[in-house]
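Posting for a labmate who doesn't have an account.
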Amino acid sequence: MIATQLNRNIGLDLIRASAILMVLISHGRTFLPEFPYRDYLGIFGFLGVELFFVLSGFLLGSILFKEFAVKSFSFATLKHFWIRRWFRTFPLYFIFLLLNIFVLQYFFGQQEWNWNYFLFLQNFVTPHPALMGEAWSLSVEEWFYISFPLVLFGLLAFFKDKKQGFLFISVSYVLIFTALRIYVSLEPTLDWDSGVRKIVTLRLDSIGYGVLIAYFNLTYKEATKKYHNKIFLFGFISIIITIILFFYFKSTSLNTFFARAFLFSMASFGFALIILKVTNFHTQHKLLINIVTKISLYSYSAYLLHLSVIIPLFKSFAIHKEIPILTFIVYILTVFSISSYIYIYILKSLL
């Protein structure tokens, strides 16, 4: 989820900015006036996180393909990759974790926590606890960043053609965790959200789709450029079908086998195809570039900040029910204002 100022790509920034805005709208929808189907805005949370997952996989896959499939690699390569990743993500995560534990628990009566949060194990195989609700997706990302490069390191040496080996390992990784989710989804009482969506071991394949599309982007660059419009259209149709199915199941029950087993894969597949087109997006509109870039840079801070800090704070004042539109606007502005300071004075110094 994290972005830096180096090697900026306006298309990738646009994807990241879109993802965080969808998440903010979803979680902040209670600050909007009541209207029919307002709760259906929750789909933005689902789509926003899925987009984050695929984007993370795309960026990770691009790095790992160059480091492992193109260059010669050693354990030092893996070690350097992990250190660089963790140095960018861990400090801010632990700051907000401690803030949730020692401040929000005291003022807002948050539920009990456990030490698993420090190892990203709080939702490894069980539902995510109530404290720091946004941390579930960070656990999924961190375990992918640990497991997938480790699998590559352990198995890629057995392949004579490293590029083909990269593809085989990536596809196998995605299929294994997809199959695991399909198998677990056979349990009829399993909850779509807490029982599947937010469980680390059932969601690792979503990031894998981003790795796969990175492979095709780097290996078949000319072909992907030639057919990027058709690929984008196919991905867009896939997302539309996913949305239609989500609303259908939402009106009946999301706790069905199909929704649990396949809805996530459909979203990941669609977003992976869309990313190929958007990465080639270009514009000379300086204001648009500036806004999109800043939202992208502040997205990681905003993600950690909004759900466990800003929203509980705003809900503690009754005024949010009296002037909902203004509250929603102030909520968005507050998240990005504070996120900008966090980025400038904390994150930027670590990048």
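Reply:
Got it, the structure tokens are right above this. The chain has a mean pLDDT of 90.
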